[in-house]
């Protein structure tokens, strides 16, 4: 039996909340790349998404929460890129491929540097996400140390090289590069810092 026009039931539109949050984060990352962190405010983001400013806050409490989610996204993206980059590599080759994904020397990683530095500022002021930051950095440092261990076994670096110290140095230099790039937008300085890691490894190879 068919329903009359007055009896037709209109079902509410089902929105995938998590998918919508992810699309907002991706749009935010694009906006940061296009306009910079300072201009990537809620109004600009709402315009990019073609939604109202009030609708944006149905998915995030404020810009701080959005930046926190963006940080989670970029660290996951970085880990995925590292995994893909080193799939068929080992030793120093794998080390360099992995480190290149962290340093702000590509269009993607330069945007990520701006997000990371903004997030670290939040972590310093709130302490709420500090463990997340350390977890990711420690994971990458451990991966780099593993590649250096392979390099030692392959005879690419000295058997007496301090592997953990070298891996931590590389991560610390990458963080320095991210901070300096976020502040100065100097691509040359980021590449210079990346080359400084290569110089230290050449010494370790003797």
From the helix content, strand content and strand pairing, which structural class follows? Answer: mainly alpha
Radius of gyration: 22 Å
The tally of beta strands, per DSSP, is: 0
How are helices and strands ordered from N to C?
Answer: HHHHHHHHH
Shape call: elongated
Largest sheet: none
Mean pLDDT: 89
Strand fraction equals under 5%
The total count of helices amounts to 9
Poorly predicted parts: none
Helical content band: over 70%
N-to-C span: 86 Å
Please give a structural write-up.
This protein has 206 residues and is mostly helical. The protein has helices at residues 17-35, 42-49, 53-56, 63-85, 91-102, 107-126, 130-153, 163-184, 187-204. Helix 1 (17-35) crosses helix 4 (63-85), helix 6 (107-126) packs across helix 8 and helix 7 (130-153) packs across helix 8. The mean pLDDT is 89.
The gist of it:
The protein has helices spanning 17-35, 42-49, 53-56, 63-85, 91-102, 107-126, 130-153, 163-184, 187-204. The protein is an all-alpha fold. The model has no long low-confidence stretch (mean pLDDT 89).
Secondary structure layout plus pairing:
Layout: H1 17-35, H2 42-49, H3 53-56, H4 63-85, H5 91-102, H6 107-126, H7 130-153, H8 163-184, H9 187-204
Helix pairs in contact: 1-2, 1-4, 1-6, 4-5, 4-6, 5-7, 6-8, 7-8, 8-9
């Amino acid at each position: 039996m068919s329903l009359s026009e007055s009896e037709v039931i209109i079902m509410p539109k089902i929105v995938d909340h998590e998918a919508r949050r992810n699309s907002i984060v991706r749009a935010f990352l694009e906006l940061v790349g296009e306009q910079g962190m300072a201009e990537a405010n809620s109004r600009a983001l709402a315009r990019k998404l073609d939604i109202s400013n009030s609708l944006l806050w149905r998915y995030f409490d404020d810009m701080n929460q959005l930046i926190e989610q963006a940080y989670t996204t970029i660290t996951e993206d970085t880990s995925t890129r590292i995994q893909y980059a080193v799939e068929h590599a080992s030793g120093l080759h794998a080390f360099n491929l992995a480190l290149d994904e962290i340093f702000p020397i590509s269009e993607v990683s330069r945007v990520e540097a701006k997000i990371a530095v903004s997030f670290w500022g939040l972590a310093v002021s709130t302490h709420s996400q500090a463990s997340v930051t350390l977890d990711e950095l420690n994971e990458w440092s451990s991966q780099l140390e593993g590649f250096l261990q392979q390099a030692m076994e392959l005879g690419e670096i000295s058997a007496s090289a301090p592997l953990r110290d070298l891996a931590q140095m590389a991560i610390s230099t990458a963080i320095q590069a991210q901070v300096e790039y976020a502040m100065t937008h100097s691509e040359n300085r980021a590449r210079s810092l990346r080359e400084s890691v290569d110089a230290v490894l050449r010494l370790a190879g003797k």
